[in-house]
């Protein structure tokens, strides 16, 4: 088997592809690169950076990742069509280690109703597409979409065909989250029995969480012989999501004596990666989420608190430090200087210098004047927010609100567009609604508000507010996000960002496929 050792499990991260297919998520090229660089620090083996054929913007985003991330293999998804593979080649041509990921459905249900192809046609397309992909790169992964509802004999034929054509990794996905751990293990063991040559390749598993079994199914797959697991940060992805990277990695680490497998993941980067993906995707992490939820290491029950104070092992099977939480309490204040800020970012793993440092320091001072302390989580939010701010066409200069219970609220906003200032007023059912109406009149959009989410970056009454706004126009969604000590200010900035995208009609990917 083509792995470092029989005990090593490759981590194939699909946050930027399957994760981005979650409703409402649309990452631009710079955001993809920011996440990819953090995934590289995390230590993943393969980054699936996107689905190149879906749009020119997707080619740009994958290409940016391929050019700048050098220690991971970079993959692009493809249907069994030459145009897809050509688009992936364009995107991956600068990659240190490019991978083409080719897929086609193998279940009778999908072949009849989605593909409208015969089994013979599926086999032939598999042969042609894998051979064409292999003619361009040496690393080709092939996936049987809806594998867990496919006939074992036919799936074995398709896998044999893919291997003969040059596939080096075979993925058997539970596309619709239908299987169970015992059943999945049996499917994979049967495939090994039917296709002995599979032992010379890498077997991969990709599971969805529709029945809440994604992590359990992936672990069962590893026990059955899979040495690659396809995951997403925070478990994001189509419908109920994918198997979560943090759950797979920490299960293998915490229960190493039971499983006996290792990964190359630097677990101390898990918490930071989770926060970054949450902010850039706009998908908050549920408080009780395993490993990375804010309650994962919290104890409220008196008996639990007493036990933890005496010995943390009484109620904690992992150390918070093992996923990188020990630096959360790093604090800076309004008297801290630029060098202290730069050093703090360096301790967190970020290189911030030049104009980026100047902008971050300016934003830090603005927030430090309004907060007692600025924590590591705040610093991450500041860096993320100011990176968005530099690419904005519109800048919020002033927001004035007038509101009273039972009365219509009024807002006056001033927005900078280059060297010009625009001022407008608006009315609404509340101060935020009024501000949105005023901003819409400046930007010139009639996009409808579809989602409005507010969360706190940290705990405490002076926490930064993190606001996400999703607008819909002509059947497409546009997302804006911002952080500020004042919720209304953050809401206005987030709306302004989303509205400017809607007004510009920035295209989003039009082809969405899942495996």
Keywords:
single chain; 515 residues; alpha/beta; three-stranded antiparallel β-sheet; 17 helices; 16 strands; globular
Descriptive account of the structure:
The protein is α/β, with parallel strands linked by helices. It contains 17 helices and 16 strands. It has helices at 29-42, 56-68, 82-92, 108-115, 119-134, 152-165, 181-194, 214-223, 245-254, 256-259, 270-281, 302-310, 338-347, 354-368, 376-389, 431-443, 487-504, and strands at 10-13, 46-50, 73-78, 98-105, 140-145, 169-174, 202-207, 228-231, 331-332, 374-375, 394-402, 409-417, 420-428, 448-456, 465-473, 476-484. The longest helix has 18 residues, at 487-504. It starts with 9 loop residues before the first strand and ends in an 11-residue tail after the last helix.
Poorly predicted regions are: none
Structural class: alpha/beta
Please state the oligomeric state of the protein chains shown: single chain
> Biggest sheet, open or closed, and with what strands and sense?
8 strands, parallel, barrel
Average pLDDT for all residues: 89
Number of helices: 17
Beta strand %: 15-25%
What value does the Rg take, in angstroms?
24 Å
Give the termini separation: 23 Å
Q: How many strand units?
A: 16
Categorize the overall geometry.
globular
